[in-house]
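Re: your question about Phage minor capsid protein

S., sorry for the slow reply, the queue was backed up all week. Below is exactly what I fed in.
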Amino acid sequence: MLTPSYLAGLPDEMVKIYSQLEADIACDIARRVSKLGKVTDASQWQMMILDELGSLKKSINKALVKYNAQAQKELKRLFEEAVQKSAQKDLAQYNKAHLSDNQKQILEATVMKLSDGKIAKGAATTDIINNQFKADYEGLVRLTQTIASNAESRFVEECNSAYMKVASGAFDYDSAIKQSVNSLAKNDRTSVNYNYKKETRSLSIEAAVRMNVMTGINQTCAEITERNCEDLGVELVEVDAHEGARPEHAAWQGKVYVRGKAREVDGVFYDSFEEVCKPGTATGICGINCRHSYYPYFPGMEKHYDGKDLKEMNKKDVEYNGKLMTKYEARQKQRAIERKIRQWKRTADIQKAGGVDDTSARVKLGEWQKIAQDFTDKTGLKRDYEREYIGTKSGKQPKALFESKTVTGGKKKDPFEENIRQENFANTYYNSIRNRKSESDVKKVAQNSGFSVEDVKQIRNHVFKEEHDLGNGYKELFAPAADIAHAWQRLEQGNPTEIDKILLGHELTELTLIKKYGYSQEKAHLEADKLYPWEYKLKKGDLTDDDIQKDIRERLKNLLQS
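Result:
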């Protein structure tokens, strides 16, 4: 058997190898895109891309050979180490039992040798280990081929996208190239699909590597344990337990079962191990991403867990911002935060490789690192920096910026206030506004705010639909902000706050300065923020909508005259 904590950290080095492979390839592509020459003729452009693609393929193949060799060596080490540790744990259980002379002989020839790190050639356990090692390694090689194929397609796609933007006259060469590098940085992840519980799930390469390595090795050790139980005539097994188990596994963990059909053993009735824990299935013990193991148990032995222990493990005793969660739910949230940290680290690393400003990505990284620290501080969970790690071209982790500079339109987002739910809401709401064919919300916001329909329409386009020069050398949409999304929703639904109306004043001032008076977006935002900061309070008490409109016009007039 292998302990849950050992299994959790088992794939870390393998994940680093494949993360480094992805980083090397992604940064290589970004560098190649950023250095493409200026060609106006379509046929010449295609010839240049084909030449560059050939060079890229050679570079990728060289990287695959290098990293596959590293992976094979590390995987072999992990298999040998895990099999030995598992045998040592099983041996400790056997040593507590009263074995017959025949059982002791079998034990010496099997478990004891494995516990010493000796894997005899031709032994049944050797076939188990070699077959699973081969299957795992071949699966990892297929993952690298997926990375390579995806990388080559993305390179051609972004090169052609840049050319079309320049050819259309919509963008100059430098702006188009920067957009392509940013697109690579923000959408560089290779994913693989797996069928699970009749659903198709998409996993990142890192998640797929972690799953394949941990699951494959755990199943190998479980198969050896099972074979030894069979050879030694062991009837009972005890399943280990850990905090944070998925609910369906928490129901059967930490108990003793009988192998085969449910029955009595020495006067005690035991449920069937196969029927309850379902070994050999994707969703059962030692299945996909399962950290449970089992080991031999003999009548009269002291059990490792009692009912009280198991009940404590499944309690909703983790609190975060007033909400109680089980350890499993809390760790799922922690995994989501870690994915965001890795995402923004990658974005920053690829932008840097492509010669594009990475400030915005590093700010987002800082926000999510603060969220991670806040979450672990309040829940008592341990921060897992291994799961925040990414491979980088330089070998150094991108550094976060902790002063928010993300441009959202009305307010710079406070990283302390951001969380997963709010960011998802903002993205969903902004997309819904941007994809709406009707402008029914314009009339509702105008009616509920006192602003004219024309002004609200301009504000809506400015915040949600128009691209702006945010200082990166090209135009882009504002980043979704949960605060603005909530404000617009309240304005549309007819329950706006005074601050929501002031947001409209801020945006109207900003867009007027940009469109009529030629201010840059950054300068217009700063000036509008002076007149209408997000926390601005009207000193004269509750003013009417007309008063607010007049106040906006007067402030704008005074600003332009100064």
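The first helix runs from residue 4 to 9. The chain has 20 helices and eleven strands.

Happy to talk it through on Thursday.
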